[in-house]
Amino acid sequence: MDIQHREGQSKGSFFIEEAGEVLAEITYSKAGETKIIIDHTEVSKELRGENVGKILVEHTIEYARKNGLKVIPLCPFAKSVIERDVSLQDVLN
User: Fold this and answer.
1) I want to staple 38 with a disulfide (CB 3.0 to 4.6 A). Which of 24, 31, 32, 78 is the partner?
2) Which domains does the chain have, with CATH numbers?
3) Is the pTM of this model over 0.90?
4) Contact predicate 46/13, CB 8 Å
5) In this predicted model, what pLDDT tens digit does every residue of 49-84 receive, in sequence order?
6) Residue 22: beta bridge partners?
7) How many CB atoms lie within 10 A of CB 56?
8) Minimal CA–CA distance to 70: which of 29, 39, 34, 33?
9) pLDDT digits (tens, 9 = 90+) for 2-49
10) DSSP string computed for 64-88
């Protein structure tokens, strides 16, 4: 499973794409220089049940760690994943 990253000036995403179709994606918005807001997670029917959403959340948390960013999880799915896993909570704002 190849997770790709797209980053713009104020937004970004991690996604899985096959044959030109995005099958799973987590999006974030930049909040200043030190924070990102996870605002949406979506997984296609084809990948449901394979923990892809959780993998994308973990990938985003790792990105935040590597870049010294704090995370604000507004997406209900991402928030629930982070709340259930203490190992992901070090980057919370």
Assistant:
1) 78
2) 4-91 (3.40.630.30)
3) yes
4) no
5) 999 999 999 999 999 999 999 999 999 999 999 999
6) 17
7) 26
8) 34
9) 999 999 999 999 999 999 999 999 999 999 999 999 999 999 999 999
10) HHHTT-EEEE-SHHHHHHHHH-GGG
